[in-house]
Amino acid sequence: MAGLVFDASAVISLVDSRDARFEWAFSLLTIAPEEKFYISALTYAEVLVHPARGKKLNLFLRDFAQAGFEIVSLAEADSLEIANVRSITSLKTPDAVVVALAIRLDAAIATADLSLAAAARAMKIGVFQPN
Amino acid sequence: MITESDELSACLDKAAKLWPEFADERAELLRQVIAVGRQVIETRTQNTLNNRLEALKRLSENFSGTWPADFDEQRKSEWPD
Question: Which of A108, A122, B27, B64 is deepest in the core (most CB within 10 A)?
Fold first, then answer.
């Protein structure tokens, strides 16, 4: 495994202490302190909507970068992988993007989403999810 | 007996100045260098973790409650099957 790709549910769990899965998400830091944390540019956009609505976007951007997340842009080859994932699973595009990125980076996925976790496991991708 | 590249050889020569008691024991000098390297790696890993924890603590303080409880359902409903 070469890092962890976070989906939106896992990111929110990590930064929102009111989230029921906050402790699980935080435990990822101690389970894999040396691992790189990745998030796709699309996932990032989904996460940023609410800080933007609250006029606190710059504050979020600064601290999120310092939290060690690498924002990964989508490449042309990812389009093919995303389409492939969509064709063999029932995942919607944002979740297929997470899977495609994990495949490209040879990374595991951190998610609280049951359908994404199941689809990723079926594709032999490592998954970290709440119990 | 270790095979020394130019870089390793120069490194062990410097190490011999730090640990003169092992100046004639190149393998022991290498062990000392590895021990220091391991310490640096552990420190960097801990620093990375501490920086992450501090940044996430600030995010949590400033952004808890920012996303609605049904955030996942909302964002998924925006995309077709």
Answer: A108
Distance of CA A40 to the CA centre of its chain: 7
- Number of neighbouring beta carbons within 10 Å of residue B57: 15
Residues of A engaging B, defined by a Cβ cutoff of 8 Å: 8-9, 12, 14-18, 22, 26, 29-30, 33-34, 46, 50-51, 54, 56, 59-60, 63-64, 66-68, 90, 92-94, 112-113
Residue B48 pLDDT exceeds 90: no
ipTM, 2 decimals?
A: 0.84
Nearest to A49 by CA among A87, A78, A11, A75: A11
Instruction: Give the length of chain A.
Output: 131
Q: Residue A49, Cβ neighbours under 10 Å: how many?
A: 16
> What are B58's two structure tokens?
């600030």
Statement: residue B70 has pLDDT above 80 = yes
State how far the Cα of B28 lies from the Cα of B42, in Å rounded to an integer.
21
